Amino acid sequence: MTNTYVLLHAFAERCADWSYDHRQVDDRQITASRSIPQGSQTLELGLIWKRRSWRVHLTVTTAFFLSDEAPGEGMGRSTMQFSTRPSMLDPQWPNEWHYLQGTNPEPIVQNLAEVYEQTLGPHLKVVSSLPGLVHFMLEAYQQGMFLEPRASRSFDKALKLTQFLGPGAREEAQVALRVRAQVLGITPWDDLFK
Known about the structure:
The protein has helices spanning 3-17, 75-78, 86-89, 106-126, 130-139, 151-161, 167-183, and strands spanning 22-25, 29-36, 39-50, 53-65, 79-84, 97-99. With 194 residues, the chain is an alpha+beta fold.
């Protein structure tokens, strides 16, 4: 049994403690997921071998399933995903952790658990509903917090999701999101055609 195996399986046990129902572990990655209203959340831990050590990455994704899309149009069209990493939410965390082959994996598992409990877990709790995601975009979002090629993409997706809010909340959220994007110097793609 290798130390990377021990690391992956120890972290998988932590995922169970954090209410991730489905866990898949292979030789270099863990993917854990759980259901939320209107979607799912996924936690991924990946190992990459580089320059005589393992690089450990954590990524979380919240996905909302769109019920108005015709089935069969493809998974990318029927979900809106918001992915991030610990360092994108809180600069105190590194972009990656280094794990030397043959060393005790428990300290890194403990460190990753701390990162989850202090940063990723609270973030996932906030964005686990459509109103929560809109609230996050309005109150806490800063450019670079989501894995997107451009910041406007996050606002485009959030604006599309507002159609699933109640009638009064929908219009209010759309206006507030556009104002917030403007304050941040971001032009959502859909605003270019208005």
